[in-house]
TrEMBL record:
<feature type="signal peptide">
    <location>
        <begin position="1"/>
        <end position="19"/>
    </location>
</feature>
<dbReference type="InterPro" id="IPR006260">
    <property type="entry name" value="TonB/TolA_C"/>
</dbReference>
<keyword id="KW-0812">Transmembrane</keyword>
<keyword id="KW-1133">Transmembrane helix</keyword>
<dbReference type="GO" id="GO:0016020">
    <property type="term" value="C:membrane"/>
</dbReference>
<protein>
    <submittedName>
        <fullName>Energy transducer TonB</fullName>
    </submittedName>
</protein>
<keyword id="KW-0472">Membrane</keyword>
<keyword id="KW-0732">Signal</keyword>
């Protein structure tokens, strides 16, 4: 019978929590944040299978940056588990988690201790490696901006976003989206006008857009929000 382990991080700083385990435990996890004022509002919850650990203890140290509203905007690996797909599984979950608002951008470190306590087994199937070709947030407007063409708005930074070719499920994908920008460059009302057909891909684009910085030329009398549009194409033929 396959054993699946649900990993929860600590909800408070300087507080450790063991794994909530379905069936019999063979993995334990302790998490600790280093910044006293930061607390998880929606803590990472990760499903770990015994084979993910490959029969030994694993540890992952992450450096996590969040915006004043508590949304995770950047994750860096300080110490890898040594298993790439396990690192990526945890990192993706961290991006979907959220801190309590602090009113300022902050960076904390988060340690995941994954302890294998079961019997070693050779029955685990090898994890299929994802295609190394990845897609970034290369939109139509961003492309014109890089070429120094006049655009209705400008990305002040490239949104933090990447997906593997395998995530396209064998088809090229296209997403059209819109958003509103206030006179103080606040982004709101992000909408998918043309879906990729994959909900997780649409949501990744929305998440990347909501955490980036965008500006536009404005009139001094402009007090209302302006709607802008952009589109991104994930061409399957781009990756061999």
């Amino acid at each position: 019978m396959k054993k699946i382990f649900l990993i929860s991080t600590a909800l408070l700083l300087n507080q450790s929590i063991l794994a909530d385990v379905a069936q019999t435990s063979s993995a334990q996890q302790a998490a600790e944040l280093t910044r006293d004022s930061a607390q998880w509002r929606i803590a990472p919850r990760i499903r770990i299978q015994p084979c993910d650990l490959e029969n030994q203890n694993r540890k992952l140290d992450l450096q996590i940056t969040a915006n004043p509203q508590g949304k995770v905007t950047d994750v860096k690996v300080l110490e890898s588990t040594g298993v790439d797909h396990l690192d990526q599984k945890i990192i993706k979950t961290v991006y979907t988690s959220r801190f309590r608002p602090t009113g300022e951008t902050f960076t904390v470190s988060q340690a995941f201790a994954l302890n294998f306590t079961g019997q070693p087994t050779a029955s685990c199937r090898p994890v299929k490696q994802q295609n190394t070709c990845v897609y970034l947030f290369e939109t139509k407007i961003l492309g014109e901006q890089i070429l120094k063409h006049k655009t209705p708005f400008q990305y002040k930074e490239v949104p933090k976003f990447f997906i593997h070719k395998d995530e396209l499920k064998g088809e090229s994908r296209e997403i059209h989206f819109s958003f509103k920008l206030s006179n103080k460059d606040q982004i709101s009302n992000i909408k998918i006008n043309k879906s990729s057909g994959l909900n997780h891909l649409d949501q990744q684009v929305i998440s990347a857009l909501s955490t980036t910085r965008i500006t536009s030329d404005k009139k001094w009398w402009q007090f209302y929000k302006v709607t802008h549009q952009d589109q991104i194409v994930f061409d399957l033929n781009k990756c061999p």
